[in-house]
Amino acid sequence: VAPWNVDTISNPGFTKTVINKAPPPRQEELSEEEREERMRKFVKENEKLLKKYGMFHKYNDSKKFLQENPHLACEDTANYLVIWCINLEMEGKHDLMAHAAHQCICMQYILELAKQLEVDPRACISSFFSKIQVAEVEYKNSFDDELRQFKERIKRRAAEKVKEAEEEERKERLGPGGLDPVEVFESLPEELKKCFETQDIPLLQKTIAAMPEEEAVYQMKRCVDSGLWVPDARKNQPEEREETPDTAPDVSPEK
């Protein structure tokens, strides 16, 4: 899956400062597929380190860790943290997401500082953490605002992905007539629900026989169209064909 990038830096507030310059990284001309492959390889090799960085609480600890692992000061780390934040939010781990989001914004600021100064991000690790720890009110407010907006975007994207996953799951479970068995089951009269819940075929036949014909036809057609009832599933048993319900929600009696 291609990394989902978020533009989190709008007012970084850095000024041109004198730092020990390292040459700017060479701009790689990579295709989308090559970037995705690079990202997968980077995550495979560094995921434990990435999550460890994402859990630090103190700036000094983050600074020391990145100085010991300077290769993490890169765009792939920021992209990984974005994806991780989305997954944490989808899992309902809101506090953990908020913490990882803070670490993601720190990384984004390091990358932005490197871009402004036209140096390698590794040369900006110390400068950023020194800056943020003694930041003026305006600068700190800018950082906090960026973090707040980023978390809002994470929450929106996580909600979208949950909705997309639910819709995909719904499509996959549609019956032969295009109806959702879960929705159909939930809308059945209670007496019919009980039949499918207990897989009580005689009770189902009795319940259908007691219903007005039009209602019975309507309800059982919906059961067939949703896959709740497969009337010919036991075609090898003629005595039960077309009058024996074979399936119930989340149950496959034939197995």
Descriptive keywords:
62% helix, mainly alpha, 10 helices, 255 residues, disordered C terminus, elongated, disordered N terminus
Q: Hey, roughly how much beta strand do the residues contain?
A: under 5%
Roughly how many Å is the radius of gyration?
A: 29 Å
Estimated structural class = mainly alpha
Distance between the termini: 35 Å
Helix content: 55-70%
Number of helices: 10
Tell me the total number of β-strands: 0
Low-confidence stretches: 1-22, 236-255
Give the biggest sheet.
none
Keywords: Cytoplasm
Main location: cytoplasm
Domain Cdc37 Hsp90 binding: 10-169
Protein name: Hsp90 chaperone protein kinase-targeting subunit
Molecular structure report:
- By secondary structure, the protein is mainly α.
- 62% of the residues lie in helices and 0% in strands.
- It has ten helices and no strands.
- Helix 3 packs antiparallel against helix 4, helix 7 packs antiparallel against helix 10 and helix 8 packs antiparallel against helix 9.
- The longest helix is centred in the middle third of the chain and has 36 residues.
- It is elongated and about 80 Å long.
- The N terminus and C terminus are likely disordered.
- It is found in: Cytoplasm.
- It holds the Pfam family CDC37_M.
- This is Hsp90 chaperone protein kinase-targeting subunit.
- Belongs to the CDC37 family.
- It comes from Timema podura.
